[in-house]
Design goal:
single chain, Arc Repressor Mutant, subunit A, Tetracycline Repressor, domain 2
Length: 227
């Protein structure tokens, strides 16, 4: 390895370490205090960065930092969901609706149970989807619901829900995503979040609710308004 290549690798490693420190500090502080009560200087200090412009240098601004956090956590979620889909099809070529709905919840649930940082991520940002005043589907498909595993889950749901066409499917999915967002955020803020019997009850009950929400028939009233 040449000296120039070694120096370049060292700079990249330091850059990655700084980015990671800033991202973890932001998750920790926002989970504890709320986004409105955390400043750039707070994050830089918590990340133990001497350069006060470190956040702006690596992420441009606070929005850029948050987008990077969401993208990184979404990648984790995609990978876990892909593993679950592979295991699901190894067991059966025709997964049930409940098994497909589990793909909407269990990737994030299992990661939060295993990883305190991911738990803090949900605690910090889980309610953002719930509070959005615009449609969630474009955002989710771009981030947490996107990727190959997200597209595959969407396709499996459409096949399992033939009574939901077009806009009816979109509306039900919008409601299901908001339900997941609110429920996961509430769980993340519990004293023994993602652990023990209560967390298993939470998981199964949430999946029960999503199955019921998606599988219910389209009423005559809804059909009339959709025409």
């Amino acid at each position: 390895m040449t000296a120039a290549k070694k120096n370049s690798d060292n700079r990249q490693a330091r850059s990655n370490a700084t980015k990671s420190a800033l991202m973890r500090a932001a998750e920790h502080l926002i989970a504890k205090h709320g986004m409105e009560n955390v400043s750039i200087s707070d994050i830089v200090a918590a990340a133990e960065q001497k350069n006060q412009s470190a956040l702006q240098y690596h992420f441009t601004n606070l929005r850029g930092l948050i987008d990077a956090i969401v993208l990184a956590r979404s990648e984790q979620t995609h990978n876990r969901r892909a593993e679950l889909i592979e295991a699901l099809f190894a067991k059966s070529e025709r997964p049930t609706l409940r098994e497909i709905c589990m793909l909407m919840v269990y990737p994030a649930f299992s990661l939060a149970r295993e990883n305190p940082d991911y738990h803090r991520y949900i605690k910090a940002f889980g309610h953002q989807l719930m509070l959005s005043e615009t449609s969630l589907l474009p955002m989710v498909r771009r981030h947490g619901g996107g990727g190959a595993s997200g597209i595959q889950t969407d396709e499996l749901l459409r096949l399992a829900l033939p009574h939901l066409k077009g806009a009816d499917f979109e509306r039900r999915m919008e409601a299901a995503i908001r339900l997941c967002s609110a429920s996961m955020y509430h769980q993340a803020r519990q004293k023994n979040a993602f652990s023990g019997k209560q967390s298993q009850q939470f998981l199964y009950s949430l999946v029960d609710a999503i199955v019921g929400l998606l599988s219910g028939p389209v009423s005559d009233e809804s059909k009339a308004l959709g025409e």
